[in-house]
Amino acid sequence: MYAAKNNGGNQSRFFARNMHKASQLRYRLIADLRQALPAGQLRLY
């Protein structure tokens, strides 16, 4: 928490690399879904 605050805030810091990697994958998935919705690339069955 203090490392993120000292670097200007509005950030996240992790103690373990696997936590960082999981966070990156989750944010990428969210970004991809946000782009796919308006582009009509998803269908609900």
Structural class: mainly alpha
Distance between the termini: 42 Å
Query: Whole-number radius of gyration?
Result: 15 Å
- Tally of domains: 1
**Helix percent band:** 55-70%
| Count of extended strands | 0
For the sheet with most strands, the description reads: none
Order of helices and strands: HH
> What is the chains' assembly state?
single chain
Taken from the alpha-carbon principal axes, the silhouette is elongated
- The total of helices stands at 2
**Overall pLDDT confidence:** 80
Describe it for me?
The chain has 45 residues and is mostly helical. It has one domain. It is built from two helices and no strands. The model has no long low-confidence stretch (mean pLDDT 80).
Can you describe this structure in just a few lines?
With 45 residues, the protein is mainly alpha-helical. The protein has helices at 2-6, 17-39.
Q: What is the strand and helix layout of this fold?
A:
Layout lengths: L1 H5 L10 H23 L6
Keywords:
45 residues, mainly alpha, 2 helices
